[in-house]
Amino acid sequence: MTTLATRASAWLAPRRAEMEAFLQRLVDIDSGSRDQAGIDAVGDAMTALLEGDGIAVECFPNETYGAVLKAEIPGRSGGAPVLVMGHRDTVFPKGTVARRPFSRDGDLGFGPGVADMKGGLVVDLFVLRALKAAGGTDFPLIGLFTADEEIGSPSGRPMIEAVARGARAAFNAEPGRASGNVVTARKGGLTLDITVTGKAAHSGANHADGASAIGALAAKIVRLHALTDYAAGITTNVGTIRGGRTHNTVADHAEAELDIRFVAVDQLDGILAAVDAILAAEDVPGTRAGYEKGHLFLPLEARHSADLFARYQAAAAATGFAVDGEFTGGCADSGFTAALGVPSLCGLGPVGGGAHTDQEWCRLDTLVPRAQALAATIAGLDG
């Protein structure tokens, strides 16, 4: 470890109780996506902690999703910054905390968002504080904390891309895997909202006069699912369907939501071309189909994480734990930084699991060592 890393690690070493207490504070604030007040309340607590250590925090308000927060520790020499990232929203509705607030059982913590990703936010904040206390870095160190990752980062993505463009590195503190690994590659994902229109008719007296939108959609779903190519890392899934009026009316409308996952940015155009051809086909005469794009996440390709992972793995070993890299089909904001060509590493929060469920858990004993390893990795980029 460098001298900076040693000092940062020593600062973090006695802070498990403080980290746990702050994690409990964040978990016990409802902050489901689009709960602007709750998400901003989480941000207020984070801002107060950082500003208490003299770290400046800039707030970019958004009345729909909640503010984006940008914390910055100026570098001694300037140059390209290093980012630590996280999102403050969870998937849980308002009122969840009242039913099941933060709790602990030995080294396990439970509660809404405890792993995904309020535990990661705690790691980010304490890493920033540790590196500042240890004397800071030559380069600017930025903490970027968004409000809407769980719904596709509609307001977060533009800020991430604006701040990350040209950065030296980006570290995203999504939860560490249940295996103890960090994330070195992620799939990208796109949601398409498909609409099919047809012509209504009485299904008994005038069946031939109708054009079934449901029939057309059913035919298209078979071909959309056939685009799945496991060897290429591409999956397609129609997860919801709606349509029709009554059982005795030929359906004049139908809708579906298509989830597309892919492992490389250059796969997406080909997938969309195939989808376009499937939707353009008139499977049932008199019907037509189209779509609107929904959430889009870009993939984190392994080539963008390789160097940072080698550095992190060495820092982890020096800290006292072994770690490997892992691929996941889930999406995250690290794909946006990687797509810019910024070296990016993900899954750097405490070890956790059960995300998005009532059984979500976080290993509290990994808070300090994961923060130490991340601080050491960042310190290793200094100079």
TrEMBL record:
Q: Name one Pfam family in it.
A: M20_dimer
Q: Does the keyword Hydrolase apply?
A: yes
Key words of the record: Hydrolase, Metal-binding
Q: Catalytic center at which residues?
A: D89, E149
Q: Which GO terms describe its molecular function?
A: hydrolase activity; metal ion binding
Instruction: Please report the stretch or stretches of sequence annotated as the Peptidase M20 dimerisation domain.
Output: 184-285
Organism superkingdom: Bacteria
Q: What InterPro entries does this protein map onto? A: Bact_exopeptidase_dim_dom, Pept_M20_glutamate_carboxypep, Peptidase_M20, Peptidase_M20_dimer, Peptidase_M20A
Tell me the PANTHER family matching this sequence: ACETYLORNITHINE DEACETYLASE (PTHR43808), BLL0789 PROTEIN (PTHR43808:SF9)
Q: What is this protein called?
A: Peptidase M20
The lineage, from the top, is: Bacteria, Pseudomonadati, Pseudomonadota, Alphaproteobacteria, Hyphomicrobiales
